[in-house]
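[User] Once you have settled down, look closely at the record that follows, and write a paragraph about the fold.
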Amino acid sequence: MGGRGLDHLIEQNETDLGFLSAYGGGESPEELLKLIQDSICKEMKIKATEQGVHFSLSLENLPLVNSDVNRRGFLDAKLDATGIEVIITDFGPEQRRFIERLVEFIRGE
């Protein structure tokens, strides 16, 4: 395969891999903020930071354990009896599930 073949392959892969963005990753803090904003409820507070999106929820007895936020896509998690604070660095399936679980909990579903 010559040089043109390799260039063509790289171009093809760049255009064909766009679907991967559905799994999260690579978004700027501002893009993350927009994605997360569409999923949260009014009790949740978010703001863009240099590292990602700072997420906080002050509510007792959240249905969370430390392992829920000590994984890829979460940073500097602080979970205690009064709520959760964490920086979300990706918005993939785990982060979506995290927010969905909290929304369901708040709404009593």
